[in-house]
Specification:
mainly alpha, two-stranded antiparallel sheet, globular
Length: 119
């Protein structure tokens, strides 16, 4: 990825087909507790991180990861859950080693956000 290029997680789709009629059933976010989407948003972030290219010259840097974190500061709970999944996905790829221990402890664990702590 380019150092200034942000990856954006696609919006979570809350609709699906119901067999045998093939009717589309949509879940209205206003009628259920937003906490029900926590792990779906987390998984959405993991999927986004797993799409990061390993092309020559495309390097995941500390600044690039922290730049994504700064974008979640204004995005609310959904953005924090998605970013936590993004961190987890980067960890699965082995790219979190570019972060310092202070980044992990101060910037992420200090927030006491459950999904980020899991990541």
């Amino acid at each position: 990825p380019m150092p200034t290029e942000l990856l954006h997680a696609p919006p979570l789709t809350l609709a699906g087909r119901f067999p045998p009629q093939q009717a589309v059933v949509s879940l209205d976010p206003a009628t259920h507790n937003p906490e029900l989407n926590l792990w779906a948003e987390f998984s959405n972030g993991v999927a986004t991180a797993l799409q990061v290219s390993e092309a020559p010259g495309a390097e995941v840097t500390r600044g690039w990861i922290l730049h994504h974190r700064s974008e979640t500061a204004t995005g609310g709970q959904v953005a924090m859950n998605t970013h936590a999944g993004f961190l987890f996905g980067l960890g699965l790829r082995g790219t979190l080693r570019v972060l310092r221990v202070a980044d992990c402890v101060h910037r992420y664990l200090h927030e006491q956000h459950d999904a980020t702590t899991v990541a």
